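Dear support,

We are seeing what looks like truncated structure output for some complexes. This example has two components. We would appreciate it if you could run it in full and send us the complete token output so we can diff it against ours.
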Amino acid sequence: MRTWLLLQHRVPTEPSAGRVSVWRKMKRLGGVLLQDAVWVMPATPWTREQLQWLAAEIVELGGEARVWEAQVAIGEEETLVHQFQTQVDSAYAEILADLDRADADRATLARRYQQVRTIDHFHSALGERLRAALLTRNGADRT
Amino acid sequence: MKWVTWEDVGIDRIGSAWLICRCVDPAAEFLLVPQGVLLPAEAEPFDVPGARLSHHQGHSTFHTILDAYDVHDPILRRISRMVDEADTVQEVTVESAAPGLDLICRGIRRTSPDDQTALERGALVYEALYAQLATESA
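Here is the complete output from our reference environment:
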């Protein structure tokens, strides 16, 4: 059974920058928004630490935050796993498509790949393929 | 004086302890306590949520310490950017060494018998990083 972390929070509506900042940070961490103010992430030491700091930041913004550790008791969780995989895979697919263009800038695409990889919580096979493609495209050195 | 932080140190706590020794308190004594236990009153806490010397405004504890003690060394500012990029969520990243430093710090904790030893070994890494960055910017 998987363990998940839920970030439940309330951020003051004004200034709106606070809410936006929390949303952007959760996106950057690769979280999935379950409900208005409830984000979910797979529980790992890394996600736990990141959520702990984000919760502290929300409190600093004058809001409230709790991080819950949870398991799905009733209902299936594969859809949820799938949501995480989809957001990562679509980002990888975009990079793969860009890599196929004649004017592909591999260095820039490689940086985008590295960024997506930090939130690839379920180790996507497409990520491995993209990595191999980045390293071998255009007859460049093979590793 | 005494300083206290949570066990299982990583890039920010290792770096902050090194920074405290270097710039704030050369005779610093570090206490490491399990997450969640009551902090000893006689020690200054760092990198513990809610503490004065902790993450603030989206920056790492390392960064907070530089500000709190008015340290303006450009090399330390650069290292602070690395810790920020590795340990907090940043819109852009400009320090390619940041993920590497993060991995090495995690590995140091894994290969050290305890946190105290990890702080000592980690200090060598930060010392080396500082020396090299200083050479390159000279």
